[in-house]
Write a structure and sequence with these properties.
Largest sheet: 5 strands, antiparallel
Helix content: 55-70%
Structural class: alpha+beta
Oligomer: single chain
Shape: rod-shaped
Number of helices: 10
Number of strands: 12
Strand content: 15-25%
Strand order of the largest sheet: 2-1-5-4-3
Length: 466
């Protein structure tokens, strides 16, 4: 592209520039010839007028013109002063006088118009250039014709030198233009080359590559647009990579969660098959098998719930907050009593809007996690109030808490803060993932505030009033 632009522009310039020089040279040549013709005509006219008077004077004195023609015309031979003029006189087409015998005249010079006008010719002979003016003398001497030749070789040579100088200057200007054009094109096409190189780098995976932006012209705007496009590509590729990593992490965790109960079930079944068991050992093995089977069943059910929540649409209805809290407390009554947890409910709101079953599942899960986090005699505060103009329900416990760096991951499927404790307490690692989906279905946000040793507060912030 750059080379084609250079060749096209340079050839167009050469054509136009040299055409201009040719036109100027031709115009100068025409001026040289016109000036020489005007001078020759003027001198021819002066000599003709003077000769007419001389002829009349000769006749008045009774002197023969033919006998005195040489002495009469000799002074006119040097009339031009620069010795470039040549003079010849004809009578009835016969040469009677010539200042330079070596000149060979063309015959058509002697066929002059009878109306008294003069012929002007520009001729080249023996590498020299001449302007020739011929014309008859006025009546009664119209049998005589004067031919005046002026040598314009020096003027034509001067024109030739000027023409050659113009083409030489044109050649130098063309070379300078070629260099300047190459520099300009390199500068103009540099951003395109950078775009091409940057595009190749991005295609090769270097998504952080950007174009340099300088100035405020169209090229800088194009570079900014390209960088914006590159940032979008980098962002979207980052999202795709993160999504792929999450999917792979989900598959790995799911396989791990399946392998653990399956290994236990297979081990106890093999033990029952090969070992001589007492009745107590048999019942104990069956109990383990049933326990692991229930955990797999719970895992399957929660996976199904999570999948359904991602596709479901809910019908929102007014739910009394006090009734909802009471239902949750009754559901977790046994766990609360076993750990002797103290729970306090505070509600400044009458109703919230949502699906009763999903809201109950949400708060049961969050309360259950709070109970698990608390030790015996722990303390949980559940509060429903308006915070910053938004309906907010918070569940605060004084349990063991979590380090801040794991908070962004606790809603990921199968993510466990403490793997051994959660499995021991029957968790599948999907509870908070289900809670997150329920919160999203209600156009709400879930926020965790936690500190190790001080407990955890989870807030459900409803962004809409309905």
């Amino acid at each position: 592209m750059k080379h084609r632009t250079f060749l096209t522009t340079f050839l167009l310039f050469l054509f136009a520039f040299n055409l201009g020089i040719l036109v100027i040279s031709f115009t100068m040549f025409k001026d040289v010839v016109r000036h020489a013709e005007e001078r020759t005509l003027a001198e021819h006219y002066i000599m003709t007028s003077a000769m007419l008077k001389d002829l009349q004077a000769l006749e008045s004195r009774g002197v023969s013109i033919e006998e005195s023609v040489d002495s009469l015309l000799q002074p006119y031979s040097n009339f031009s002063g620069d010795k470039k003029g040549r003079l010849a006189l004809y009578k009835d087409d016969q040469l009677v006088y010539s200042s330079r015998q070596e000149i060979v005249w063309r015959n058509d010079f002697l066929h002059m118009p009878r109306d008294g006008s003069r012929l002007v010719q520009f001729e080249k002979s023996d590498d020299r250039n001449y302007v020739i003016v011929s014309g008859k003398l006025p009546v009664p001497y119209d049998s005589y014709a004067m031919v005046y030749v002026y040598d314009t070789t020096d003027a034509v040579k001067a024109w030739g030198k000027t023409k050659n100088l113009l083409f030489l200057v044109g050649l130098l200007i063309s070379i300078l233009l070629a260099v300047g054009l190459l520099v300009s094109l390199n500068r103009i096409f540099k951003p395109l080359s950078q775009i091409s190189e940057t595009s190749r780098n991005i295609a090769a995976g270097a998504y952080e590559t950007r174009l340099p932006v300088s100035g405020k012209d169209e090229l800088s705007e194009m570079a900014q647009s390209f960088n914006y496009m590159a940032e979008e590509i980098q962002r979207q590729m980052g999202e795709l990579i993160a999504a792929a990593e999450k999917k792979q992490q989900f598959i790995d965790n799911f396989a791990h969660e399946l392998r653990t109960p399956l290994t236990a079930i297979y081990g106890y079944a093999e033990y029952m098959q090969k070992a001589a068991l007492t009745e107590d050992d048999r019942l104990s093995s069956i109990s383990y098998i049933m326990s692991e089977s229930r955990r797999m069943q719970a895992l399957a059910n929660q996976l199904l719930d999570l999948a359904n929540l991602r596709n479901d649409q809910i019908i929102r209805e007014a739910q009394h907050v006090t009734d909802l809290f009471y239902t949750v407390q009754q559901t977790l009554h046994n766990k609360i009593r076993e750990k002797e947890i103290q729970i306090e409910f505070y509600s400044e709101l009458d109703v919230i809007w949502g699906d009763v079953h999903l809201l109950k599942s949400l708060f049961v899960n969050l309360m259950d996690n709070a109970i698990k986090a608390c030790g015996p005699g722990g303390h949980i505060i559940v509060r429903a109030a308006m915070e910053a103009g938004k309906l907010t329900i918070s569940i605060q416990d004084n349990g063991q808490g979590m380090p801040p760096e794991i908070l962004p991951h606790i809603t990921e499927p199968f993510y466990r803060v403490e793997t051994s404790r959660n499995r021991k307490e029957g968790g599948t690692g999907l509870g908070l993932s289900i809670c997150k989906q329920i919160v999203l279905l209600h156009d709400a946000e879930m926020e965790f505030i936690s500190s190790v040793g001080e407990g955890t507060t989870v807030k459900i912030i409803f962004t809409t009033s309905l």
